Amino acid sequence: MNTKLSTSRMRTGQWADIIKDCKESGLKVDDYCAQHGLSRSAYFYKFSNFFFHFRNISMQL
């Protein structure tokens, strides 16, 4: 996975893969972001959007 793309140009699917990869890596988010050239704030922004989106979907089921 090429995580060194501009964070503003990444698509939702790419961010889903990045978030999953970060969790599976066992690294702290700060360390993962530093190693992959990601902005910590962008990571948490996208993570919170995914959490909010999926929480709303599960509440509707």
Strand-helix topology:
Blueprint: H1 12-25, H2 29-36, H3 40-60
Helix pairs in contact: 1-3
Q: What portion of residues is helical?
A: over 70%
| Number of discrete helical segments | 3
Fraction of residues in β-strands = under 5%
Rg, Å, rounded: 12 Å
Global shape: globular
Largest sheet: none
Mean pLDDT: 80
- Overall number of strands: 0
- Structural classification: mainly alpha
- C-alpha termini separation: 32 Å
Unreliable sequence segments: none
One letter per element, helices H and strands E, the order comes to: HHH
Main features:
0% strand; 3 helices; single chain; 70% helix; 61 residues; mainly alpha
Overview of the molecule:
The protein is mostly helical. The chain contains three helices and no strands. Helix 1 (12-25) packs across helix 3. The model has no long low-confidence stretch (mean pLDDT 80).
